[in-house]
Amino acid sequence: MAPQLQPAALAAAAFFLTLATLPSTTSAIRCYECNSATNTECDSNPQPEMLKNCSDQSKGSKYTACRKIDENVDFEVNGLPAVKRVVRMCAVEGEPDRPCYYKAGFGGRVNVCHCFEDGCNSASVPAAALGLAAVGVLLALRVA
Asked: Which stretch is the leader sequence (predicted)?
């Protein structure tokens, strides 16, 4: 004869099954979405209307970070002019221990930074780095 489940065990199982099927209520990250090639405000002064809820984008809840890309093409290549461009967007992944990386190749450079708070891709990288450097100097002076 099969063992009988106790009413409390049945209630607990029903509760956890119901809980597992509920949609996630985690709030999505909001990032600036723009490209300075089509909107010059994107370069250094992203506007409030550029702040987008990443869950409304094509990959929805997979977005966990914001990204800012500084692209530089240093000279004309294949008939395309030299250009400096800033792109801000939602990002599927980022590395918390490596928030920025830099790549360079023939005639071009790119600096890519990720961050993990709403609207965090609005700041310019040099300004953020300068702020962190200032805090480091102040802490070093205080310890000395």
From this structure: 1-28
The angle subtended at Cα 6 by Cα 14 and Cα 4, nearest 5°, is 110
User: Half-sphere exposure of residue 44, counting CA atoms within 13 Å on the CB side?
Assistant: 3
> Do the Cβ atoms of 91 and 66 come closer than 8 Å?
yes
pLDDT in tens, 110-124: 999 999 999 999 975
- Assign residue 60 a region (left: φ > 0; alpha: ψ between -120 and 50; beta: otherwise): left
Per-residue pLDDT tens digits for 32-68: 999 999 999 999 999 999 999 999 887 777 889 999 9
Least Cα distance to 88 among 127, 36, 49 occurs for: 36
Task: List the chain domain ranges.
Answer: 26-143
Instruction: Indicate the pTM of the whole model.
Output: 0.65
